[in-house]
């Protein structure tokens, strides 16, 4: 026998299920007023510094169907690369948002500010990105991924650099469709499958 | 200092993303491996929520839908426990959100058309912040089991959905709490996505008579463990990279 490691194990995940919205986005679920102050309704408030942008997209299942029930959370720093709560962070950037696919079209839209670049603990500068976490019925453990931007220099990003099959890098890069407008589609499975992260 | 990168997830304790027994997971699970990397500030920081954002009845699902005017129908229960990290340290001031069906097994959601009626006094959502010891509690009613379209006759055991933030976005977790003694647990394809029975047992809350209140409610205890972080002492630029 050896000494016991004094560690606990993470609690196992379970799917968020089809009714996740009543708990996490009650207004979207038709239950406005569940909470007086719903969280995650916008990552920015009036006066946020930087470029306000809109990122539109869909989450596609393995058959190519745009899922109507996906729920996404995003987390990002402000335009200077500071996260909410850090010294000097923009008080008008909470950085956190919850958004869901439209029940009719299957499209989501995230309105936020373009994030600044953030270095890793080792000092490597990462390209500007928004972290995403995707949950839905049929997703047994939430999926992590990132949105990078076509009009930024992504060539030295340490996460993108680790993607062996270079064409797959494209799955993490939002395409510019107009001034302040981007398109970012997420494919859970099959052709063009999004790179999902384990970080 | 435990402020290095997040401890990598042990995927073996989690459900299989692809599980033919849970049909919807078949087209919604990635085919390709995840890209595993050390966490960065995007995963090591996360949103915080202050007490000022919570209402007084937010963690009382018996009363919150009617704002205290009338209680929900069902068996009154206290759901309580602690949020800890893998080092066993309490996770204080973190948001815990729950949602559930009513006593008849019906959700207040536009997509739920089950025969059981809505309870006009029950919304089915609650939230709270853990205290300085990582403790949380909800007063609610025991949710009913309900049928769902999967195989021809599948039923969900009684369960409460739980979402926890922790202190960093990489700790984010959604799971479900089941109830001790429910005979539907071993029959449920969603519970069975967790292949290790000992791990599934960790989602089954025991009856906790010591925390129940005579002539008022029964209690169930449900502790939650989030990812921890490594020591940062030897964290520096990786050698040779
Ligand atoms: Fe459920």
From TrEMBL, chain A:
Keyword Ribosomal protein: no
Keyword Oxidoreductase carried by entry: yes
The organism's place on the tree of life at top rank: Bacteria
Keywords recorded for this protein, A-Z: Dioxygenase, Oxidoreductase
Alphabetized SUPFAM superfamilies for the sequence: Aromatic compound dioxygenase
EC number: 1.13.11.3
GO MF annotations in UniProt: protocatechuate 3,4-dioxygenase activity
Intradiol ring-cleavage dioxygenases domain segment(s): 26-190
Family: Belongs to the intradiol ring-cleavage dioxygenase family.
Protein name in the entry: Protocatechuate 3,4-dioxygenase subunit alpha
Species of the source: Roseinatronobacter alkalisoli
From TrEMBL, chain B:
SUPFAM superfamilies listed in its UniProt record: Aromatic compound dioxygenase
Residues covered by the Intradiol ring-cleavage dioxygenases domain: 79-107
Pfam families in the cross-refs: Dioxygenase_C, PCDO_beta_N
Keywords of this entry: Dioxygenase, Oxidoreductase
EC id: 1.13.11.3
Disordered: annotated segments: 1-51
InterPro entries cross-referenced by the UniProt entry: Intradiol_dOase_C, Intradiol_dOase_core, Intradiol_RC_Dioxygenase, PCDO_beta_N, Protocat_dOase_b
Enzyme class, first EC level, given as a word: oxidoreductase
One GO MF term attached to the UniProt entry: protocatechuate 3,4-dioxygenase activity
Keyword Membrane: no
Highest taxon listed in the record's lineage: Bacteria
Gene3D superfamilies: Aromatic compound dioxygenase
Family, similarity comment: Belongs to the intradiol ring-cleavage dioxygenase family.
The name this protein goes by in its record: Protocatechuate 3,4-dioxygenase subunit beta
Gene: pcaH
């Amino acid at each position: 026998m050896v000494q016991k490691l004094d560690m606990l194990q993470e609690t196992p995940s379970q799917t968020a299920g089809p009714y996740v919205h009543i708990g996490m986005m009650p207004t979207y679920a038709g239950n406005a007023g569940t909470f007086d102050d719903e969280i995650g309704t916008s990552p920015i408030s009036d006066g946020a510094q930087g470029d306000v942008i809109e990122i539109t997209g869909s989450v596609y299942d393995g058959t190519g169907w745009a899922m109507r029930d996906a729920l996404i959370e995003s987390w990002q720093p402000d335009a200077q690369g500071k996260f909410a709560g850090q010294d000097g962070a923009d008080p008008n950037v909470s950085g956190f948002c919850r958004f869901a696919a439209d029940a009719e079209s299957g499209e989501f839209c995230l309105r936020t500010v373009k994030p600044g670049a953030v270095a890793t603990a080792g000092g490597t500068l990462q390209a500007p990105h928004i972290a995403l976490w995707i949950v839905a019925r049929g997703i047994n453990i939430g999926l992590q991924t990132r949105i990078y931007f076509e009009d930024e220099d992504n060539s030295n990003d340490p996460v993108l650099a680790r993607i062996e099959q270079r064409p797959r890098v494209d799955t993490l890069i939002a395409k510019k469709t107009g001034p302040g407008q981007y398109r970012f589609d997420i494919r859970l499975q099959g052709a063009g499958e999004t790179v999902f992260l384990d970080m | 200092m435990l402020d290095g990168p997040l401890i990598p997830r042990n995927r073996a304790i989690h459900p299989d993303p692809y599980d033919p027994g849970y049909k919807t997971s078949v087209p919604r699970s990635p085919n390709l491996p995840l890209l595993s990397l050390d966490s960065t500030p995007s995963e090591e920081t996360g949103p915080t929520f202050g007490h000022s954002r919570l209402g007084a009845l937010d963690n009382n699902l018996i009363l919150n839908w009617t704002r205290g005017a009338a209680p929900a129908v069902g068996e009154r229960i206290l759901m309580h426990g602690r949020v800890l990290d893998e080092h066993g340290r309490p996770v204080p001031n973190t948001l815990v959100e729950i949602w559930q069906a009513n006593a008849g097994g019906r959700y207040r959601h536009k997509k739920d058309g089950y025969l059981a009626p809505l309870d006009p006094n029950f919304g089915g959502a609650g939230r709270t912040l853990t205290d300085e010891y990582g403790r949380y509690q909800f007063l609610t009613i025991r949710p009913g089991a309900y049928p769902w379209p999967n195989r021809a006759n599948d039923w969900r055991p009684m369960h409460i959905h739980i979402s926890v933030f922790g202190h960093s976005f990489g700790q984010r977790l959604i799971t479900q709490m089941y109830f001790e003694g429910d005979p539907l647990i071993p029959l449920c394809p969603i519970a069975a996505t967790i292949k290790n029975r000992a791990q599934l047992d960790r989602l089954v809350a025991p009856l906790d008579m010591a925390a129940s209140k005579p002539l008022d409610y029964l209690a169930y205890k449900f502790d939650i463990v989030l990812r921890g972080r490594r020591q940062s002492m030897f964290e520096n630029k990786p050698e040779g990279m």
